[in-house]
Amino acid sequence: MVEQMIRTDKPITKPKPTWSRYTFPGSLWGFGTVLLILVFLGYSMVFLNIDIPLLLGALGGLIGVVSDRFYPPDLEYVLDRGYLAAILDTLQMSFLGGMLGVVFAIPLAWFSAWNVSPSRRFLFPLGRLGVISARAIHETIWTILFVSVLGFGMLAGVSALTMFCIGFAGKLFSDEIEAVDMGPVEAMRSAGANPFQIFIFAIVPQVRVAFTGIAIYTWDVAFRAATVVGFFGGGGMGWYLKRNVQQLENLRVGAIILSIIAMVLVAELISGWLRATVNKAK
């Protein structure tokens, strides 16, 4: 006779959330912080002489200015062969800058991650300094610096985008590395593996999906920044925008702005599809 097994385990139920009042001194710190922020915002508006009604009125008049100066846009201009080539230059510049930035950001992120840095005394501050320095300077300033050294053109634009992407991707990469499970890392350390082996076989398998998503997002951001970089001498669509702004060709400027918006929407759709594909691979 076969004895039947009786289940004695009960389903785990989560405790119901209970409401409680703020208690002292937590309430003092919480409400005091909110009060200080509100006071600072109010003081800033008064100090900067920000007129809210005037600002709202200006935003309302913006539609009239756009319709008077930039409508109808000269769409034939953005279909010209030269401008289409500039769009291709912008795509190439964003791709090269994003790819090089990601490549250089990976070792810097590894060095600047405190939990797995090969040398906390030397490489950790070096990696942090590299990432922070790249992030501290805006892409427009990087463009001006490289244009002054390399001259106008794609090389200066790619170099500026590379530095921008190093700071952008390096910060996200280092955060992902610092959040890895340390179990495989400690196991390889106890087995006598060197830091590079630990990084390749214990860290990369945990972060490869996240790194792929960050790399795609970095290219998306780099494409948006490529237009600004081109405006300051990096070439591409931004150079056409700057030239027509200076020549007061408002109808052409309106068409260029519409083309930039269209390209950004396409890049957003592509990057969103790629990120969704990467997330499904987890």
What does this structure look like?
The chain is an all-alpha fold. The protein folds into two domains: 26-64, no CATH class; 75-280, MetI-like fold, CATH 1.10.3720.10. Helix content is 77%, strand content 0%. It is built from eleven helices and no strands. It has helices at 26-47, 52-69, 75-78, 81-112, 123-136, 139-150, 154-178, 182-190, 195-234, 237-246, 250-280. It is globular, with a radius of gyration of 26 Å. The model is unreliable at 1-9 (pLDDT under 50).
Structural class, judged by helices and strands?
mainly alpha
CATH topology of the largest domain: MetI-like fold
Helix amount, in percent? over 70%
Supply the CATH class of the largest domain.
Mainly Alpha
User: How can the largest sheet be summarized?
Assistant: none
Task: Outline the low-pLDDT stretches.
Answer: 1-9
Number of domains: 2
Q: How many beta strands in the DSSP annotation? A: 0
Q: By CATH's scheme, which homologous superfamily of the largest domain applies?
A: MetI-like
Provide the residue-averaged pLDDT.
81
Please give the alpha-carbon distance between the first and last residues: 47 Å
Overall 3D shape: globular
> From the alpha-carbon coordinates, what is the Rg to the nearest angstrom?
26 Å
> Secondary-structure element order, as H and E?
HHHHHHHHHHH
Question: Which labels suit this protein?
Answer:
282 residues; mainly alpha; MetI-like fold; 2 domains
What's the short story on this structure?
This protein is mainly α. Helix content is 77%, strand content 0%. The protein folds into 2 domains: 26-64, no CATH class; 75-280, MetI-like (MetI-like fold, Orthogonal Bundle), CATH 1.10.3720.10.
